[in-house]
């Protein structure tokens, strides 16, 4: 299938330059739809509502978002899709849904290069993503797969388009440095019997058994290395993560 756009639930056949300008200020969420279901759909609705209240000063009802998601699925004619819901405003609030084919999870553990960087307003999934792409491309030029960020004090926060967590045995540790609370990370945390949120200094990376990236595409992508610290496959923590996700079934759109 080819990508297409829906604006407020209707197929967008031409893009107005005014629309292009307006969409540069806003926020979004990205979803992978499988058989008409989405992991953590209620969390996506909550994210969009909270962010819209903060950025635009008004609520965004889940019913409106769900209607546009269903319109996207109906227009595509298939139940497996990649969707991105952008929220922006002109004289009123708009939803722009980008529809594309589903993206399969990665299959190879990744090598990360760390950079000191803290995103502006990190708790929002906003449209200011130049810095994320910049560092991801920089890491690839330097021979790595992607970038992971740390604060000025050396605490790991998040990766370019992922959250990151670490494992000591079967215990998962999520960095406490400011970062976007990703939907897949929240789904994982819902399913875990226990987990820890704590500072993860660069100097402590060797004390962990494993590290994993999570986002809407990759629920638990193993990290092969961060800079000079390497990680081997770790079945104990991988099993805990798999069990957590199984306990949180996807929700129908």
TrEMBL record:
Matches recorded under Gene3D superfamilies: 3.30.470.10, D-amino Acid Aminotransferase, subunit A, domain 2
Keyword Lyase: yes
Any Pfam family hit: Aminotran_4
Molecular function, one GO term: transaminase activity
Keyword Transferase belongs to the record: yes
Keywords (A to Z) from UniProt: Aminotransferase, Lyase, Transferase
NCBIfam families: PRK09266.1
Protein name (Swiss-Prot/TrEMBL): Branched-subunit amino acid aminotransferase/4-amino-4-deoxychorismate lyase
Lineage: Bacteria, Bacillati, Actinomycetota, Actinomycetes, Propionibacteriales
């Amino acid at each position: 299938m080819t990508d297409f756009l829906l604006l407020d639930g209707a197929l967008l056949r031409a893009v107005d330059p005014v629309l292009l300008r307006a969409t540069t200020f806003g926020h979004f969420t990205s979803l992978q739809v499988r058989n008409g279901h989405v992991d953590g759909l209620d969390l996506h609705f909550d994210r969009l509502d909270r962010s819209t209240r903060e950025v635009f000063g008004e609520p965004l009802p889940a019913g409106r978002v769900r209607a546009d998601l269903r319109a996207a699925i109906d227009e595509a004619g298939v139940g497996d899709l990649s969707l991105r819901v952008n929220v922006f405003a002109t004289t009123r609030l708009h939803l722009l849904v980008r529809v594309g084919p589903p993206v399969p999870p990665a299959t190879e553990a990744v090598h990360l290069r760390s950079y000191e960087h803290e995103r502006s307003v990190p708790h929002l999934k906003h449209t200011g993503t130049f810095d994320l792409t910049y560092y991801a491309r920089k890491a690839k030029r330097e021979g790595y797969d992607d970038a992971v960020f740390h604060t000025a004090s050396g605490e790991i926060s998040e990766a370019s388009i992922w959250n990151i967590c670490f494992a000591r045995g079967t215990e998962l540790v999520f960095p406490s440095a400011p970062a976007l609370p990703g939907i897949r990370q929240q789904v994982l945390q819902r399913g875990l019997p226990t987990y820890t949120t704590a500072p993860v200094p660069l100097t402590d990376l060797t004390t962990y058994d494993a590290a994993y990236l999570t986002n809407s595409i990759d629920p638990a992508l193993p990290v092969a290395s961060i800079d000079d610290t390497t990680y081997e496959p770790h079945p104990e923590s991988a099993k805990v993560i798999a069990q957590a996700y199984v306990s949180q079934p996807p929700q129908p759109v």
